[in-house]
Amino acid sequence: QNPREFLAKTTGLAARANAVQQNSFESLPLFIAAILMAEYMVVPEKFILSLGWAYIVLRIKFHHPTKHVII
Questions:
Q1: Backbone CA torsion sign across 14, 15, 20, 25
Q2: d(Cα 37, Cα 19) in Å, to the nearest integer?
Q3: Which of 9, 60, 61, 66 has its CA 20 to 30 Å from the CA of residue 52?
Q4: How far is CA 71 from the centre of its chain?
Q5: What are the pLDDT digits (tens) for 23-69?
Q6: What is the pTM of this model?
């Protein structure tokens, strides 16, 4: 029962989904730091929210395994 070993053997959509998840974990600290810095520097909230949503939408658009949203 070793999940890392199992994921290393996956192929296709499962491997791509795992890669996307790992990439998201790598970019999340930078996203959080940017939001906190913008709050600290008193950037207008509407601007922060629009950039935050743009980040999320672009992450889904360019990194989702099937290239479209499944909700």
A1: positive
A2: 28
A3: 66
A4: 16
A5: 778 888 888 899 899 989 999 999 999 988 998 888 778 765 555 44
A6: 0.57
For 71, counting Cβ atoms within 10 Å of its Cβ (0-12 exposed, 13-18 middle, 19+ buried), the class is: exposed
Which residue in the block uniquely carries the two structure tokens 């990439």? 23
Cα(40)–Cα(34) distance, rounded to whole angstroms?
10
Residues 2-31 pLDDT 10s: 888 888 888 888 888 888 788 778 888 888
Residue (of 38, 36, 30, 37) closest to 55 by Cα position: 30
Tokens of 64: 């989702």
